[in-house]
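To illustrate the input format used throughout this study, we show a single complete record. The first block contains the structure-token representation of the backbone; no residue identities are included at this stage. The design step must infer an amino acid for every position from geometry alone.
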């Protein structure tokens, strides 16, 4: 959500910011609606003042016996009442149209975001680790003998495409990965573990900009709840309509949840395996900070996510997204891409975004320095990590020529001391 006062004060700057997003003419539309809304409010206030003045004169006219003036003033009061109602209705209508327009506009990107059309124009920042050199043709995760516990056929029978049932070693490894991530974030990165609902009200989805723009990407129940696409929704909205003390910031939270996405527009993409599912699990990170802290917090959160991969021994690269690939609510986003031998390419496993005050304004989430005026917080979110994609990376990078998998040492404590999966799919 954007600050209408800032747009009003500098429409050219706002227009330039939206042009980077591929939009044009929006500041003119906003100012026209704003002017119409303010004109209706002014007309209603003027009519109300005239009504009040006439009302005060009614008694005097009646007391003086001037029946004609008394009748005229009563008619004027009635007319002004109708005028006030009409103008207030007009103001509400213009306000609703203005709000709808503003809710549908993306965030203003930081100047440091590189220009570009799509993911091919993202800029690599650095790499860590060396992709494994295998002396055999590597398989994708769903073709590995050791991964026979990934059951897509049963999932399709139960739910359709883009679902999976995990059994045996796969279920244990998936659970171990999530526990490892949570322990790392809570014991070393200072995040507070949180368990949240996966069903939320519509206003929560609006607050973190899933609605109204991206309704088709999410699932809604018949009684109006929405299934969360990420715990960003619940963790960030925990401050909705609140004013907290500045001393309580920063707030740093993590949650391991089920996530649900319709994957609208992804037909034909990653149809095999676990890369793109309707239901998946993610360990999410959310920070809520003072405005002057958000840039440093963005870098800190990126390191939290990168550390997960480093502890797992998985090679990755970090990129900053270009203007054409930066998400709707973000001012700037870093993506971490893990190396997948089965595809012989880096694939995204985490996005870490700074939304600044964009979501806070939608949620009316603020903080107050001692006795000062309330100010919007800045919100940040990032995957730390997507558990299913981490499972894929562990399987593919640890695969051996016989179809087994050697597991990262960091996970052994979460797997009962076991460090391998045999080609028969057994943890040993």
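Output of the design step:
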């Amino acid at each position: 959500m954007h600050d209408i006062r800032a747009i009003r004060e500098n429409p050219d700057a706002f227009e330039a910011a939206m042009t980077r997003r591929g939009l044009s003419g929006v500041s003119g539309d906003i100012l026209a609606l704003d002017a119409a809304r303010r004109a209706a409010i002014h007309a209603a206030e003027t009519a109300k003042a005239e009504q009040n003045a006439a009302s005060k004169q009614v008694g005097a006219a009646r007391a003086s016996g001037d029946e004609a003036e008394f009748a005229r003033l009563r008619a004027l009061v009635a007319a002004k009442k109708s005028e006030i109602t009409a103008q207030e209705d007009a103001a509400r209508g213009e306000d609703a149209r203005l709000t709808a327009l503003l809710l549908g506009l993306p965030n203003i990107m930081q100047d440091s975001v590189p220009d570009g059309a799509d993911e091919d124009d993202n800029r690599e920042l650095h790499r860590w680790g060396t992709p494994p050199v295998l002396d055999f043709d590597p398989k994708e995760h769903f073709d590995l003998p050791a991964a026979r516990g990934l059951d897509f056929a049963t999932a399709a029978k139960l739910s359709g495409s883009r679902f999976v049932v995990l059994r045996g070693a796969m279920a244990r490894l998936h659970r171990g990965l999530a526990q490892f991530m949570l322990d790392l974030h809570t014991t070393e990165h200072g995040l507070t573990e949180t368990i949240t609902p996966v069903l939320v009200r519509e206003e929560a989805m609006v607050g973190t900009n899933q609605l109204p723009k991206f309704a088709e990407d999410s699932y809604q129940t018949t009684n109006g709840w929405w299934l969360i696409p990420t715990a960003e929704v619940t963790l960030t909205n925990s401050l909705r309509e609140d004013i907290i003390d500045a001393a309580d910031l920063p707030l740093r939270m993590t949650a391991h949840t089920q996530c649900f996405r319709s994957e609208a527009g992804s037909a034909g993409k990653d149809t095999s395996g676990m890369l793109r599912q309707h239901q998946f699990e993610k360990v999410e990170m959310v920070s809520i900070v003072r405005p002057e802290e958000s840039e440093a917090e963005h870098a800190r959160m990126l390191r939290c996510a990168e550390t997960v991969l480093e502890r797992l021994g998985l090679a990755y690269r970090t990129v900053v997204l270009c203007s054409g690939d930066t998400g709707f609510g973000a001012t700037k986003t870093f993506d971490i891409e893990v190396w997948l031998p089965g595809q012989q390419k880096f694939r995204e496993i985490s996005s870490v975004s700074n939304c600044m005050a964009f979501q806070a304004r939608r949620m009316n989430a603020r903080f107050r320095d001692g006795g000062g005026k309330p100010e919007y917080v800045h919100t940040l979110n990032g995957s730390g990590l997507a558990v299913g994609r981490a499972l894929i990376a562990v399987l593919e990078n640890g695969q051996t020529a016989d179809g087994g998998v050697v597991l990262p040492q960091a996970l052994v404590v979460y797997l009962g001391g076991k460090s391998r999966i045999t080609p028969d799919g057994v943890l040993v």
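Structural context for interpreting the output: The first strand starts at residue 123 and ends at 128. The chain has two domains: 4-103, 119-421.
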